Amino acid sequence: MIKMLVLQQWHGLSDPELERQANDRISFRQFLGLPNKIPDRSTIWLFRERISESGKYIAIWNELQRQLDAKGLTIREGMIQDATFIHSDPGHTSSDTPRGGGEAKTRRSKDGTWTKKGGKPHFGYKLHAIMDGGDYDLIRSISTTTASVHDSQVDLSETGEVVYRDRGYQGGRNVKDTMQP
Prior knowledge:
Blueprint: H1 2-11, H2 15-24, H3 26-31, H4 41-54, H5 57-70, E1 79-87, E2 113-117, E3 120-132, E4 139-146, E5 163-164
Parallel strand pairs: 1-5
Antiparallel strand pairs: 1-3, 2-3, 3-4
Helix pairs in contact: 2-4
């Protein structure tokens, strides 16, 4: 199941698409160890929810990084950090309308926030990721924040690393952030 989530992350697949690709692509099946049965989308979702709720994703992530390092997949050309929006349903109310706390009768995300990029509004969250800039393009660390957190406030680099970032990371103080669900 961990390998399924790795494939999903590397290829940017939804749960249904991951199920289809794992059943269809021989490269996915080989990576998974040629299992007789591929988990369905519900099983994938439930597994991801369980490891997230239990907090075990941190130990799993650390073990994956240890194994990559043991295989000699090391960082040679610096790191690349960037962020992407994770859009959430803003509901039917405007951005000025209070959400009403946990008792509100709305489909709007209670944790997401509004921001603008290039004059276009976005509601939800940001996924910040740092990956090696070498041949492997492996994600080394991630963090999730609300959409209104400026990129310059999230620094996923280790001390002494060369990190390439876009303009959005300039200007603010860098605060070390940890991996969050």
